[in-house]
Specification:
2 domains
Amino acid sequence: MARLASARQAFGTLGRQFGSAVTKAATQIGAEKLARMNANKPTGDKLLERRLTGLIIGAFYPVYNELGFGFPESVYRRAMYYELSDRGVHVEEEFPSEVWCKQWKVGFYRSDLMVERRVIIEIKSSQKLSASDFRQPVNYLHSTRTNVAMLLHFGPKPRFYRYVCTTHGGENGNRLVHVKESNELPL
């Protein structure tokens, strides 16, 4: 028994020393990997419309928690309108936009909500999102001068998707859209 206790004590000391070394090495490797991953990213607070998207996400969860899943999109749209308005945010429902192809006006649509004329919100309340549901905010961004959109899914589980459109390269000013899915505040 004494030998077993002595072995446990020796192993415990060795394990702590080894564990500490492993933790330090893993931390160093993690820091180096993170530095490589972020090497091409701009420094500082460059998240477009951080404050507004944070307010939108902060309104999304209370509305979802109050209403749950199963109502039509119009109910969630109106609830988000009131929730954001109560938070002092300027919101417009069914915001009209035109679609242009070269010099021709080829279409017209209404986005669910426009927040301070800077963030488009599309609301869905289906069981699952389809490919066209994910594509809709992309099309909105391509046809407007707005750079940020959010897709709020009032499904069986609340989900949101953040879309960022940037002008990138070329004489024609191609607009690229990046999508981030998250259930956390944007970082």
